[in-house]
Design goal:
With about 240 residues, this protein is an alpha+beta fold. The protein is about 15% helix and about 35% strand.
């Protein structure tokens, strides 16, 4: 009888201790509306949680619904026309977003203090000093790159963790069960399968996005991304 009593007490303690754990793992649902600068709804805006892309997007009315972990701290909205904006969740379950008017012109990197230059993270420009992810930028306007034989040479000399074989680029030895995963190549906004064969003198900038920095490109950016801008298209 005493053994049964002890067993019941122990069982009740285990059940009691599991209740807080179940509550902490419980997810919450956040809803809201996303509007542009003219107060019109934005469709197909991507919902980001703590810097990670989710499968949730806004509908035709700009409304969204996303389920997040109880300990999530930041929610962001990304659109290709307006960039990225974020808010603290702070226990809220309804969060609306209003994109203000955004200038399409970006300041030149020339005569800008180190750390203030903009880096294209895939969802907007971020100052170098504010980066929390692994991104490297090569300024193609620097005269020293004119002596390089190719953009592959530029990348391998200036960015660590990048291996180039022929026209294929591998960043930080990215791989899965089937082998190496090549980096996503983007030239002036166009997706390519291989590294383009263009002279270094035509390059305005090269941005190398490693790990989660390329998460905005979904599964295509699993192996990182190489974003190349030429002087012809971006002057």
């Amino acid at each position: 009888m005493r053994i049964k009593l002890v067993s019941l007490i122990l069982l009740s303690l285990v059940c009691f201790n599991s209740i807080p754990a179940q509550k902490s793992n419980k997810k919450i649902i956040i809803t809201g509306t996303v509007l542009d600068a003219s107060k019109a709804p934005i469709m197909n805006a991507i919902i980001m949680i703590d810097g990670e892309k989710t499968s949730s997007v806004t509908d035709a009315e700009g409304k969204y619904k996303v389920k997040v972990k109880n300990d999530a701290s930041r929610i962001g909205i990304f659109t290709f026309g307006n960039g990225l904006t974020e808010e603290d969740i702070a226990g809220r379950t309804e969060i609306d977003f209003n994109f203000g008017k955004v200038s399409t012109q970006q300041p030149s990197d020339q005569n800008i203090a180190p750390g203030e230059q903009g880096v294209n993270t895939g969802y907007g420009l971020v100052k170098k000093k504010n980066l929390t992810t692994d991104i490297n930028k090569i300024d193609g306007t620097n005269k020293k790159y004119a002596t390089y034989s190719s953009i592959a040479d530029m990348i391998q000399r200036e960015v660590s963790g990048v291996r180039i074989s022929g026209s294929s680029v591998n960043i930080q030895d990215s791989k899965n069960l089937w082998g190496s995963i090549p980096a996503l190549i983007i030239l002036d906004g166009v997706y390519l399968d291989d590294l383009p064969n263009i002279p270094p003198a035509q390059v305005k900038s090269i941005e190398v996005l490693k790990g989660t920095a390329a998460a905005i490109y979904g599964s295509r950016g699993y192996g990182g991304a190489i974003i190349i801008k030429t002087k012809i298209q971006n002057d």
